[in-house]
Amino acid sequence: MNGDSNHCAITVAAESGRSWSYRIQSRFWETPTLLKPSAGTYSCYIFRVPKSRVDSNDNAYKPRIVSIGPYHHGQERLKLIEQHKPRVFSTMLNRSIGRVGPIDYFNAIASWETDIRESYSETLDWKTSDLIEMMILDACFIVELFHANRRVTPSDDDNPLFYTPRIVSSLMVDLLMIENQIPFFVLQEIYTLSKSPSDADCSLHDIALEFFNSALRLPEKDLQRYNRVPNITHLLDLFRLCLVGEFKPEEPPRVDKELLQLMPSTNQLLLEGIKFKQANSKNLKDIKFDHGVLQIPSLTIDHFTGSFLLNCVAYEQGYRYCSSHISSYVILMRCLMSTAEDVAVLSQCRIITNFLGTDKEVVRFFRDVAKDILFNIKSSYLAEIFGQVTHYRRNKWRLRWAGIKREYFGSPWTFISAAAGFTLLVLTIIQAFFTVYPYYRPKK
Q: Which class for 228: exposed (0-12), middle (13-18), buried (19 or more C-beta within 10 A)?
């Protein structure tokens, strides 16, 4: 009896095994859609932000007023701008009557369809005509917005989308979100087609950087340096380069492994004799440490730069073919700003200009941005800075001298007390000398 039961159980198990084997093998050929297999290639650079980062600051990755590209297309809250995009395209066509028509735009962008689909980490389940239409309308909207910023479209001066400050400021934030991008080559194609003779000497880089720079106010030389940089992936990448420079693979700096340590907070470094100074450059790569002085470029922290930094970090952490300089900078600032008192010191040194809120909110902001960053201190462009600061801090004589300066020269009153004490000591020694001297050298 037991033998029959065991035989039936083995038969059932064998059938279940064959059924499972068939099901699992049939799934071998299913293509993932949420993160397609080619998402890690050089040509894929527009992707969803990981949920762990979204949970920390959802508003930084979700467009508030305009949808660009497929990821947020059709959402109810973004319909206001969506309704205006065909009208904006019509304005562009009216300006180029006799030169190009709608079919020219369609054919130009359709020739890039494969490259467009490869740019996104998710499989785009869109018909060709719908995908090309979305790309054309989105790209035309962006190019016309840039033109309006330069006041080169006087016939459309009454457009409320391009000349209402509240809307324009929201557009600046939305157009630099990683999930709200279209490939830069699509923008370039539309700009080339719509370009008038008066724009012959003006590139897409020029008008894009001019538009966004009204928020960051970078020096003109920094903008001109990147107005012809090739291989731009999208608008977020273009403007990120203005802060960190073009990506060039470099040999990691040779620093003693024992010195590669993260920095303590600003106030702790002050106690150890390290001073802070605003660097002359706006490029975040230009951080220097020299003779106990840490020089850091100034940065204004507000809603725009906050969202921009968060999306730059998301881009750098997701696309391995670009530098991770913004991520390294964020780690440094997270180390330096542990408390509101640290923020206050950096604000006094004009390294941080806080328009975000209280100093505590700045601390919380950098804590959120630094969350889940994969940071390799050895390959970071700041590795040498970390090593130099650690080496400086380990010098015991410097630490003792820093303690003496803090204790006796930290304020005018302590300095006066120390000076008075020193003067009294000198006078006492002189008095003792003249008291004792006659005994050793009596007058003859």
A: exposed
Alpha-carbon distance of 82 to 257, in angstroms, equals 54
The answer on 320 and 207 residing in a single domain is: no
> Same structural domain for residues 191 and 338?
no
Crossing angle of helices 359-369/325-336, nearest 10°?
140
* Containing structural domain, residue 237: 51-244
pTM of the entire predicted model:
0.83
Q: Is there a domain that residue 312 lies in?
A: yes
Eight-state DSSP code of residue 443:
-
Q: Is residue 201 part of a domain?
A: yes
Q: What is the largest distance, in Å, between two alpha-carbon atoms of the chain?
A: 136
Question: Residue 30: what residue type?
Answer: E
User: What digits encode the pLDDT tens for the residues 110-126?
Assistant: 999 999 999 999 999 99
Total tally of structural domains belonging to the chain = 2
**Local structure of 200: helix, strand or coil:** coil
What are 400-412's pLDDT values in tens digits?
Answer: 555 555 555 555 6
- Let me know: does 273 contact 292? Beta carbons within 8 Å: yes
Q: Is 252 left (phi over 0), alpha (psi -120 to 50) or beta?
A: beta
